[in-house]
Specification:
Layout: H1 2-13, H2 19-33, H3 36-47, H4 55-68, H5 72-75, H6 79-103, H7 148-151, H8 169-191, H9 193-202, H10 210-219, H11 226-234, H12 238-249, H13 258-267, H14 275-292, H15 302-320, H16 330-336, H17 348-360, H18 395-420, H19 436-457, H20 461-480, H21 484-496, H22 511-526, H23 535-553, E1 559-562, E2 579-582, H24 597-610, H25 613-624, H26 631-649, H27 657-669, H28 674-692, H29 697-716, H30 725-729, H31 731-739, H32 743-760, H33 768-779, H34 784-809, H35 813-824, H36 830-849, H37 851-856, H38 867-889, H39 892-909, H40 915-925, H41 938-962, H42 964-983, H43 988-1005, H44 1011-1027, H45 1042-1057, H46 1069-1079, H47 1083-1102, H48 1112-1142, H49 1146-1163, H50 1190-1212, H51 1214-1223, H52 1229-1247, H53 1256-1276, H54 1280-1285, H55 1287-1298, H56 1302-1319, H57 1326-1342
Helix pairs in contact: 1-2, 1-4, 1-18, 2-6, 3-6, 4-6, 4-19, 6-19, 6-20, 8-9, 10-12, 12-14, 14-15, 15-17, 19-20, 19-21, 20-21, 20-22, 22-23, 22-25, 23-24, 23-26, 26-27, 26-28, 27-29, 28-31, 29-32, 31-33, 32-33, 32-34, 33-34, 33-35, 34-35, 34-36, 35-36, 35-38, 36-38, 36-39, 38-39, 38-40, ...
Organism: Didymodactylos carnosus
Protein name: SEC7 domain-containing protein
GO biological process, one term: regulation of ARF protein signal transduction
């Protein structure tokens, strides 16, 4: 190997060797390079050895330089000789690469020998495991090459070898990497010893201890700069001295004579220049020598050895330096050393022997070899001394310099050969496949440079073919070992030399470029499984090749037109007319008769060659063969093809060649296993998304049509349940509908999807989601044809497909309903909207008829949902939710229809709903009343409240009434909150409907109320009473600004919080507190929300910044409008309480009977009254009286009394009424009288109820106080009309008193007798007057002060 390294490679490296010498060497290397075993053995035994030079790396670099022809001028050779030398260098490089290919061939998988269609089969490796060519030792495995020697054409045998490879390939790689770090450290050390040593220490290659550093100097003295070592050892600091001491102490001078030991000592470094540094080194050497040879008696002490060592150095310089003219004689040398051995002389024979040996052989440094160092030219790369490059002017000078250099080489070779016997490293026979990877990592860069220069500089076809062969082999190796950087570099170089993708002129295409194209196509066919992202370069070339073929076949077609159908989306430079694009090959077919026509004719022939049958067929095989690529390879291939397609479409010359190929390979690969196909379609689908939205309508039209064809073929295969491949496949149609605004394209998408439904409905599974999504977007369109076609198809699906394939479409049921909802919300087509709502009702029918199918369906989103709840989640809820969306989004007629259908569904199918379902449903239904969703304009808001909210409110109460048992526990509070919301709106009809619905609900369901629900009901009534008291009437002033009015409103609210009515007037404080604490506790839950919610809206409406400055008149008008509504609600609520407690019309009938009796009394003659009898107390059990306890009834009485007291206070405030008279003429007489009348009815009913005996004392006190207070108030009335309004109340009161038994009547009569007598002074109506007369007669009878025969016969209670 010394011969190989120091002679062969040196001859090729040096510029002084002749062409003949180089030719002989390179011919020898050509034979060596053809043997794979030798090449791999060289690498692992030298480049992967810490003790050897990088032979393989140096060989490749030398051959690369030779192949590039850079030394032709320096060699002075002819062009033929230069060509031959370059060819030989390329042959050697190609042979090395072929050896690597041959060595690693077991890892290569030929795509033509496998198929990925159908079952995902893979070739079997030796162990019977499936292997795709990727999971080999090339990815960190340890697969060994079995019988590699026999499988490779090698002239070597195993006989005579000292060792065989037993290491793992990773071990060699680790050594090589460690070696590289060492080499870097050596270079740094030779430049700066401190930095170099620090680097080696950081990389854990050398320890920082002085002994380890010293050992490092000994071990690598052949490659380290000896001058740098000497300078380091001579430094005068503690650490350097420690290293120097350790360095010398590690030398063994046992049984050595003095001169031999000195030679060994000085062989490892060059002495530094300073005397002090030399002195320290010689002193330590003398000490170590004496230590190792303590039995020698020649030196009396180490001082003698120290002085002698110095004298030897001086003698060497004197005898062998050219600058010393007069040489020292032996006698002079002996004389110079007298007395150095402690004043005695050393033996004369000893000194004489030293002199003779120095004279014959000077002390030299050990020859520095290339050792571990990389690269070429380490040993004599120039013809000058000290590395100076000399210009060679003649062959004689070249020969002279060559001879000098060869002598130096001879000396080095002799030295290395003499030391070879001391190094005992076993030669390893390579057997592992993995050795090729690190070999190629070292060789690829020089090889790429050589092949690139060869293809660039020469037109010789034989040389070009060699370069192409080398490129093919390099690509194969890089592919096998997944070396992406190297693979991409070689493929890019190859594609660049086709000149199809280069920026250079097309007129430079030559035969070698055509051969490059053929090679590139071959690589695509044979290495497709490994190309990865390098496919882009190949497919880019094929794309450009198609363009060249287009013009090669018909040179007249030098321009291409594309019609712009969608000019408003084009860039500004495009017009809406036919646009002509210039093509890169236009210059080839010019009609000019220029001098270059002959050259252009030749060029045309080359382009015609690209259209040859062989190339066309080969290109087609690339695409048809894509079905044989493995899973990862096809993904990379498709991604690159789509990239090229986008480049084509958005270039200045839009083309669809690659887009056609995308469609083709989709057909070819559709038979793959689903996992692979889904990865392919993820890329292809995204590409179609972009292409289908291309501004060129022809392009987008083609994309959609291609999608249709692919989809039809894919849908024919069908799909198992719970898979989602169809959903992923059809996604592009959704994207196109969403992103492409062209009516033509959108119409085509709808037609394509309609075609799928018509022809493939039985095979569609998960694809239904995409279909409904497309139709949903079509539903919002304004184009009548698109909407009509989409709706017709949806109708067909609901009416026909649902019956036949409901199980397949079940997973997309809610998408279908959502799609219908979108049709219903398209205001441009009202007929379609109504029909869509009908279809939604049809969907509800399917849910009701097939609940078992929903229960059995367990989609991926229903894993944690119980079987019973699946009917709700996937069936009922989507239907009802979408109807609510229609209600919130559409105009009056459509939303009214939707509202009707929604509640019809609830009423018809609600029996199967659970309590949780009802709760979720009404969370949606109550959104109808959401303030945030109400229309913005006042007119629309009024219409919404008057129609939709009103309708919805009655419907909600009807549903609650029908399914009360299912909803009572969880939704009563929500219902009452919604009723309170309606009552507090500034819409009279909605407010009245709120109270009416509350009344109807309680009357219908009250008998099923629990005590807790009754508490909530009474609390709700209390809140409504308080929130609707028109308290602003008491504070309004005509000159009050809006901000002050807001303050007044707030103050009134605070006052009302503490109650504006003095309950102590009618009830004891303790009983009032206890009852309110029991029955009013529920009211406190929502009172702050409902009350403050309504009043806060009022504040905002009249605050200065609420909605801008309004005129005073407008503000007052709006204010009184709201107050009027509150007054109406108070009346409605009073009537509602009466109807709830006594049932509707009961109290009215009682009043009519009382008046009839009074009228009869007034019309009968004296003495005939005995024929008239007052009617009994009403005992109609249809009312809720029997269902309510005393506390609840008294709470209602308190509400009524509070309302009465407010109205009475207002009606008595004549000053305030005069102010309001001019503005709104409010009148609260009905509220004043109806509320107190209802309170009396409840109190007397309780008082006459024997089952409520425990509360009679409380009731008696309340009745007497309320009766006395009412009559006293009547006496204060000044207006005759006001007194007339109280007539019915007093008739009711006297009737109730007269119906009491004698004992009770006596109690009350004695208390109120005096004030009743005051009543008769007024001009009373006959009915009231005769009732009072009966009261007095009864008093006379009870107290025995009149004739009993004249009294009215009254039944006892």
């Amino acid at each position: 190997m010394v011969l190989f390294r120091e002679i062969f490679l040196t001859i090729l490296e040096t510029t002084t060797s002749s062409f003949r010498h180089k030719w002989l060497v390179i011919q020898t290397l050509a034979k060596i390079s053809a043997d794979a075993q030798i090449i791999v053995d060289l690498f692992i035994n030298y480049d992967c050895s810490m003790r050897s030079a990088n032979i393989f790396e140096r060989l490749v670099i030398v051959l690369s330089r030779a192949a590039q022809g850079r030394q032709a001028v320096e060699l002075g050779c002819s062009q033929v000789e230069e060509h031959n030398l370059r060819m030989k260098g390329l042959e050697c490089l190609v042979s090395i690469l072929r050896c690597m290919v041959e060595w690693s061939k077991d890892l290569y998988v030929n795509p033509h020998l496998q198929s990925n269609l159908g079952l995902d089969t893979k070739p079997l490796n030796e162990n019977g495991d499936q292997d795709s060519g990727r999971s080999s030792s090339g990815v960190g495995g340890s697969m060994k090459r079995t019988d590699s020697v026999g499988s490779i054409n090698s002239s070597h045998s195993n006989s005579g070898l000292s060792s065989e490879s037993s290491k793992n390939p990773g071990d060699y790689e680790a050594v090589r990497q460690r070696k590289e770090l060492f080499e870097k450290g050596f270079d740094m050390f030779n430049q700066d010893p401190k930095k170099g040593l620090q680097f080696l220490i950081e990389k854990n290659l050398v320890n920082q201890e002085a002994e380890d550093v010293a050992q490092f100097f000994h071990s690598y003295q052949d490659v380290l700069d000896k001058k740098v070592i000497g300078d380091f050892l001579g430094e005068n600091n503690k650490y350097h001295k420690e290293v120097m001491y350790a360095y010398i102490d590690q030398l063994d001078f046992n049984q050595m004579d003095f001169l031999t030991a000195l030679r060994k000592f000085l062989a490892g470094f060059r002495l530094p220049g300073e005397a002090q540094q030399i002195d320290r080194l010689m002193e330590k050497f003398a000490s170590r020598y004496c230590e190792c040879n303590s039995n020698l008696e020649i030196f009396a002490s180490a001082d003698a050895a120290y002085v002698l060592a110095y004298s030897v150095i001086m003698l060497t310089t004197d005898l062998h330096s050219k600058n010393v003219k007069k040489k020292m004689t032996k006698e002079q040398y002996i004389k110079m050393n007298r007395g150095i051995n402690e004043s005695r002389d050393l033996p004369e024979e000893f000194l004489s022997k030293i002199y003779d040996e120095i004279a014959n052989e000077e002390i030299k440094l050990k020859t520095t070899t290339t050792g571990l160092r990389r690269g070429a030219g380490v040993v004599g790369t120039s013809g000058g001394v000290g590395g100076k490059v000399e210009t060679i002017t003649s062959d004689k000078q070249r020969q002279l310099l060559f001879n000098i250099q060869m002598k130096d080489v001879e000396v080095i070779a002799r030295d290395l050969m003499s030391n070879a016997g001391t190094i005992r490293e076993l030669f390893t026979i390579a057997k592992h496949l993995e050795h090729v990877r690190p070999m190629f990592q070292k060789a690829w860069s020089p090889c790429l440079a050589a092949f690139s220069v060869g293809l660039q500089d020469t037109d010789y076809i034989d040389l070009a073919m060699l370069c192409l062969t080398g490129l093919s082999c390099a690509i194969r190796i890089a592919c096998i070992f997944r070396m992406e950087l190297e693979r991409n570099a070689f493929v890019q170089a190859l594609s660049r030399f086709t000149l199809l993708t280069a920026t250079s002129q097309v007129t430079e295409i030559k035969a070698k470029n055509v051969e490059c194209l053929k090679t590139l196509i071959t690589v695509a066919q044979t290495d497709g499984n490994y190309l990865g992202e390098a496919w882009y370069e190949i497919l880019k070339c094929i794309s450009q090749l198609e363009l060249a073929q287009l013009f090669g076949v018909n040179a007249n077609k030098s321009r291409m037109s594309v019609t712009n159908h969608h000019h408003h989306q084009y860039p500004s430079q495009l017009s809406n007319t036919a646009t002509t694009f210039s093509l890169p090959f236009d210059n080839l077919f010019s009609n000019d008769k220029s001098p270059q026509n002959k050259r252009l004719h030749s060029l045309n022939e080359q382009i015609q060659e690209t259209s040859s049958q062989s190339i066309v067929v080969s290109v087609d095989r690339i695409f048809s063969g894509s079905a044989r690529l493995d899973g990862d390879a096809i993904v990379a291939f498709v991604r690159s093809l789509c990239h090229v397609s986008m480049d084509e479409l958005y270039s200045s010359t839009p083309r669809m060649f690659s887009l056609l190929k995308v469609v083709e390979i989709s057909y070819y690969n559709m038979g793959r296993i689903r996992l692979q196909w889904s990865r392919i379609w993820e890329i292809v689908g995204e590409h179609f998304n972009k292409v289908a939205c291309n501004p060129l309508q022809d392009v987008s039209f083609f994309a959609v049509d291609s999608l249709r064809q692919l989809s039809m073929k894919f849908l024919e295969k069908g799909e198992f349940l719970n898979f989602r491949f169809q959903k992923e496949f059809l996604k592009p149609f959704e994207y196109i509908m969403k992103k492409n605004s062209s009516s033509t394209i959108r119409d085509m998408v709808v037609r394509c999807v309609t075609h799928f439904v018509d022809s493939q409905a039985k095979n569609i599974k998960s694809g239904w989601k995409n279909i409904f999504s497309v139709f949903q977007m079509a539903a919002a369109d304004t184009d009548a044809s698109i909407v009509e076609l989409a709706f017709q198809t949806c109708t067909q699906i609901i009416c026909t497909v649902f019956d036949r394939h409901f199980s397949s479409i079940l997973d997309s049921f809610q998408d279908a309903v959502k799609c219908l909802s979108e049709f219903a919300c398209n205001a441009s087509f009202p007929d379609t909207s109504m029909e869509a709502i009908r279809l939604i009702r049809q969907c509800a029918k399917f849910v009701a008829e097939k609940p078992h199918m929903f229960r059995e369906h367990a989609g991926e989103d229903l894993i944690n949902v119980s079987e019973e709840d699946r009917v709700w989640v996937k069936g009922w809820f989507p239907v009802l939710f979408e109807l609510s969306c229609i209600i919130n989004r559409c105009k009056l007629d459509v939303r009214t229809r939707a509202l009707t259908v929604m509640f019809e569904i609830m009423k018809n199918y609600g029996e199967s709903f659970t309590q949780n379902w009802w709760r979720e449903l009404f969370n949606v239904v109550f959104r109808i009343f959401d303030n945030m969703k109400l229309p913005d304009t006042q007119i629309e808001k009024i219409e919404w409240m008057t129609t939709t909210c009103n309708h919805a409110l009655y419907a909600i109460v009807d549903v609650f009434t029908q399914f009360f048992d299912d909803m009572a526990g969880s939704l009563i509070e929500d219902l009452y909150s919604q009723l309170k919301w309606c009552v507090n709106r500034d819409n009279e009809q909605l407010a009245k409907s709120g109270t009416n619905c509350l009344e109807n609900f309680v009357i219908s369901c009250g008998q099923r109320f629990t005590p807790k629900i009754w508490e909530r009901t009474c609390a709700c009534i209390l809140e409504i009473f308080r929130s609707t008291l028109p308290e602003v009437l008491m504070t309004w002033r005509p000159d009050t600004d809006p901000s002050t009015m807001a303050t007044i409103i707030e103050t009134s609210l605070l006052d009302r919080t503490n109650s504006s009515f003095d309950y102590a007037a009618v009830e004891s404080a303790s009983s009032q507190h206890n009852r309110l604490q029991r029955a009013g506790s529920v009211a406190s839950l929502n009172s702050s929300v409902s009350t403050e919610g309504g009043e806060q809206e009022l504040r905002q409406r009249y605050s200065p910044g609420g909605s801008g400055e309004r005129t005073r008149a407008g503000s007052d008008y709006r204010l009184f409008q709201i107050l009027t509504i509150k007054c109406v609600v108070q009346l409605e609520l009073i009537q509602a309480i009466d109807n709830i407690v006594f049932y509707p019309s009961t109290s009215k009938k009682e009043d009519l009977q009382n008046i009839a009796v009074a009228q009869a009394l007034a019309s009968c003659a004296p003495g005939h009254r005995s024929q008239f009898v007052l009617p009994d107390e009403p005992r109609d059990d249809q009312g809720m009286y029997q269902c309510m306890n005393v506390d609840q009834l008294l709470l209602l009485v308190d509400c009524l009394v509070e309302s009465h007291m407010f109205a009475r206070t207002f009606n008595s405030n004549h000053e305030q009424r005069n102010l309001l008279w001019k503005a709104a003429k409010p009148n609260l007489l009905l509220q004043e009288t109806h509320s107190i009348a209802c309170a009396f009815r409840i109190l007397f009913r309780l008082y006459n109820d024997s089952s409520r005996r425990e509360c009679w004392d409380t009731l008696r006190r309340r009745i007497i106080r309320l009766t006395r207070d009412s009559i006293e108030y009547y006496l204060t009335l000044q207006s005759e009309s006001h007194r007339d309004a109280w007539t019915n109340v007093l008739i009711l009161l006297y009737s109730k008193l007269l119906k009491l038994d004698d004992e009770r009547f006596k109690f009350y009569a004695s208390d109120i007798y005096s004030i009743v007598t005051e009543v008769v002074v007024f001009d009373l109506k006959p009915e009231l007057r005769y009732m009072i007369r009966e009261f007095f007669l009864r008093v006379g009878n009870i107290f025995n002060i009149n004739d009993t025969s004249l009294s009215l016969s009254l039944p006892t209670a």
